[in-house]
Amino acid sequence: MPEITRRRALTAAAAVAVTASAAAALAAPAASAAGHHGPVAPESFDEVYKGRRIQGRPAADGAHHHEHGGGYQVFIDGVQLHVMRNADGSWISVVSHYDPVPTPRAAARAAVDELQGAPLLPFPAN
Question: What pLDDT shows up at residue 8?
Answer without folding.
Answer: 73
